[in-house]
Amino acid sequence: MDKVDLATSIVKKAKLRGADECDCLIEMGTEIDIKVRKGEIESIEQSNFCGIGIRFFINRSLGFSFTTDFSEAAIHDAIEQARAFAINGSPDPASGIESYAKPEALEIYDSKIDDTPLAKKIDMALACEQAAYDFDSRIKNTYGASYSDHKVTIVLASDKSEPIGYSATRFDLTCVPVAEQNGEKRMGMWLSTERFLDELEPPPVVGSTAAQRAIQMLGARPIKTQKASVAFDPRTGAEVVENIFASVNGENILKGMSFLKDRRGQKVGTNLATFVDDGKLPRRVGSRPFDAEGIPTRRTICIDKGIVKSYLYDVRSARKAGARSTGNARRGSSSIPSVGANNFYLIPGKASRDEIIANIGNGILITNLLGFGVNITTGDFSRGAEGLWINNGRIIKPVDGITIAGNLLKMLSDIEAVGSDLRFFGRIGSPTFVITEMTIAGD
Amino acid sequence: MKQESLLDPGIVRQSLNAALAQGADFAEVYAERRVTDTVRVEEQVVREASRGLLLGVGIRALNGEEIGYAYTDGIDPKAIVEAAKVAGQIAKQGKSIHPIEVGKVSFAELRSRPRIYPPDFEGAKKIEIARSADDAARSTDRRIREVLAAVIDSDKIITVANSEGTFVTDHQVVISLRIIVIAEQNGLRQRGMKVVSGSIGYEIFDEHDPRSCATEAAHQAIRLLEAQEAPAGKMTLVLGSGRGGVLLHEAIGHGFEGDFIRKRTSIFAGKIGQQVASELCTIIDDGSIPGLRGTINIDDEGTLSQRTILVENGILKSFLYDRLNARLVDARPTGNGRRQSYRFMPTVRMTNTFMLGGSSAVDEIIGSVKKGFYAKRIGGGQVDIASGNFVFEVIEGYLIENGKVGPPVRGANLIGNGAEILKKIDMVGNDFAFDTGGGTCGKAGQLIPVGNGIPTVRISEITVGGTKA
User: Fold this and answer.
1) Which residues contact B9 (CB under 8 A, 6 or more apart)?
2) Which CATH fold would you assign to the domain B9-224?
3) B33 min Cα distance to partner chain A (Å)
């Protein structure tokens, strides 16, 4: 059966079983994942996936079910299960489904995903790894390089609106070489993720960047425990930006789980702290015409020049907060919608990375972060780190075995420089940026 | 006990033949039917009550070191054979072999015998457990602002068949209760957490009362309201028993996984027989202990789970292997080939990883430290396999002053190096305990339930990553 017809028929059946409101989201697609190592193919995976998610409301009580089995019996069971859970649940006045209009089309599908032969995809992964070996003779081993692509079609039907849908593609190129010297091993990692094949960083760039990141860590040692300036490169910066996303996530705000609760309108950061979520950025990985509840995506300024402007919402959290959905509902493969990022990023500044480093007296450029250790409820931040030590504006040595610690609220008000080198890692983007002072724990 | 094969011998034969037709030297069919129920009570309402059915088949074909893999959602015979052909394309040359004919399916010997399987426990009762946890946490203290209580169960049947004659099915159950409590005082908010989980049925709550678990999480959040800044720098560490086993998982466990050993990317590769920990340390991975979160009857390649001694009295004894890596380095599979679902290829993973108890009393260990850090409860961790550097997060920590447990401190990471840290264990407690919560381990994009255990240990020196320099 056609996906649109299937989704529509499921909604109809759910209504017949007594749903006050209901929707059905079908996800279908294909994925290819190629891993190579030491110039040979390690694995090739080619698969088709599909899933149906059903939301069933009775008296504002939600039951949900998900199935990868499209047989008639399985779909029947899924509807009955969702109904049973709705009956056993509790009324949640904020829950429900909103109507939506036909979305605008977005450029998020690259037909090259079908037109490119498998052999060429394999060659891209091989070229990526080879570039790492060629970069430096101390790259003698790798965890491999990989190419993967992913094609998905989403169809959403509800009892409120006409069915809507879109198709999207995604391509990933990753390389993880190991640098070795006198028994010491250092891993480097670099990746490029895009919706369009030709926009991926070329394989030699991904491979040599990964190699460079491994080589630069050879000989790293901890430094003394001290307070100093901390710069994040775009890759590690994106991890901090992701913490900021979690802190403006409307669900976390409502639960009192974010340090940015009750701070709308307050100045919490420097003028350089502007964080935006944008679901309509052309050709970006997080872009999509509508979210997991059918609400059109948009651009939302969350923190503007240091002032908290808006939190991010799905339908339920928006209703609870007395606001409108910002088009941020996301669903995991088998879960109810919750707030997720579209493209969430720190707006870039004007300075180049080199200018930023030159302006640091004493500090560290963080190139790798390890572990958890971020508590968005308190804002406490403590993570394992590696990086390059900067003395009088010059990188002088690699550092590992340290932690960097501070508090996200203090970090926002200590952003003293933001670079022009914005780069996205999946749906989160960051340029290089500098925090005036954090605590470094080492020797 | 309920077991049924997801595949009949006919479809197994057809798909193995299809996977081998182009010259692969090994083929495997893995079918899975997993039902997951999730109940979450948040903001005092049932935020989620859901059922997920994951049903599908993954086919793997090996050609030397090369792997072809394909999966299909659902269990349609035509789609399975099609996926087998796709997986088999990995072998473009080579001679075709014939699979060993599979006989009747065998049932895995049960290590865990759940009494109350998830489908036999009504949805309404699952909601009731989450609600009672919510209620208990809220009535603990006026300062409790929010409670998130989730009951998650997974009821999974797997059937594994391969070209070497394996044809086995297993029924695996995991139940968990996760409670997060937010307390607030003078604008400061803190978080307490308690997780209970095991490969056991709903009788898990006979032993772990949801209300007491919630109260424990609430008390933790309240205690943290008084916490001071954590110190920064090197100091003596006392690591609490049970959950502290995450140290072993990160510091050496991942480095002992056979894929990193075969590829020689682990710092422990080639070190069998060498001293890697203090002689007080004997470290084990064991997937066969009834009831723990990381326990499995068979792994996802059909190998029986087992007890593997990783380190004995400080000496590196052996590594962990799945079939592929064992075959390539001429070792034996240790029942550690695991995968998140049929949508993934199996890789080498830990099960329950723990260190045996020693002779020191806990009071004696804490009493021996003049100035140090007591990490009573820890959260998650991560390791860089190549350098061996690892971190883990402290969620409940205290200063130790003159041999006594002092004031609580706010969360901080601890950082160390796997090759060095276990050599610094100089006291081992007599209070060995498994972590009743267990954890979820992420590797290569796959999440797997694992267990941990450790007695209280003293580590002469580690870097504490607080803010107070």
Assistant:
1) B102, B103, B104, B105, B167
2) PmbA/TldD fold (3.30.2290)
3) 10
